[in-house]
Design brief:
This protein is an alpha+beta fold. Helices cover about 25% and strands about 25% of the residues. It has one domain: 4-Layer Sandwich (Deoxyribonuclease I, Chain A).
């Protein structure tokens, strides 16, 4: 099974950037989207040319903001939006799809913001999201994918020193958040398979950052320890264009 995750920075925008060709090239069994920036009906309309997949979406109360979606060839056993915590359930950031052997959770983790105004909220989110994942894991293994809005280690961004404890995405509190997920037993599949390989998944639109590969790895696939042996590959598709993020993915055997 080939699962892809992509922060598309607007589902309607990416559909105008040859998404159908990219989808054929990636050939996923399941593709998870973050930052759809659309209401459920608009997501369905935008993706209406895509056939052969079941669509599930979760949109924010605020129109044109945040949002997640899943396209799956196999119909999940169940699909549940949000964490069941009102404070966190206003922005369409979480979808959990249940399959025979695992839960697949796609997440668009809140950004702490350029002025770090949401950093305290982000810490609450990370703790509550971890508890949510562990609750799912008590029933069956979990695969979680998405834009986690954090570079875990210095090798996960081009310029670690000037960004450390100054920039959203590389604050110690955010690093502690993803480390907490790993300490709770979830495995960073890309690091597990590729070791210290340097590859990025997001680049600023400024200063030709992508062309110069001045990027960050902030998009992840994490899995429960119990199914890490079924992860045959974990990859980052730098060549796929259409967003400021590129798709990331795994192959499950």
């Amino acid at each position: 099974m080939r699962i892809i995750s992509w922060n598309v920075n607007g589902i309607r925008a990416v559909m105008k950037k040859d998404f159908e060709t990219s989808l054929k090239q990636m050939s996923p069994d399941i593709i998870c989207f973050q930052e759809t920036k659309a209401q459920d009906d608009q997501v369905a309309e935008a993706l209406s040319p895509i056939t052969g997949y079941h669509l599930y979406s979760n949109s924010a109360v605020k129109k044109g903001y945040s949002g997640t979606a899943i396209l799956s060839k196999e119909k999940p056993l169940s699909v549940v939006n949000d964490m069941g915590i009102e404070e966190h359930d206003q922005e369409g950031r979480v979808i959990a799809a249940e399959y025979n052997d695992f839960y697949l959770v796609t997440v668009y983790t809140p950004n702490s913001g350029s002025a770090l105004a949401r950093l305290p909220y982000r810490q609450t989110w990370d703790a509550d999201f971890r508890a949510y994942l562990k609750d799912l894991e008590s029933k069956k293994p979990v695969v979680v994918c998405g834009d986690l809005n954090v570079a875990h280690q210095a090798i996960d961004l081009k310029n670690p020193k000037p960004n450390y404890n100054k920039s959203a995405g590389y604050m110690q509190e955010e690093i502690d958040g993803i480390q907490g997920h790993l300490d709770a037993g979830f495995i960073d599949t890309f690091r597990h398979i590729h070791g210290d390989t340097i590859k990025y998944s997001w680049w600023s639109y400024r200063a030709a950052a992508r062309a110069r590969n001045v990027g960050w790895r902030i998009d992840y696939f994490l899995t429960s320890q119990s199914i890490i042996d079924k992860v045959a590959d974990s990859f980052i598709l730098n060549e796929i264009m259409g967003s400021d993020h590129c798709p990331v993915g795994i192959e499950l055997s």
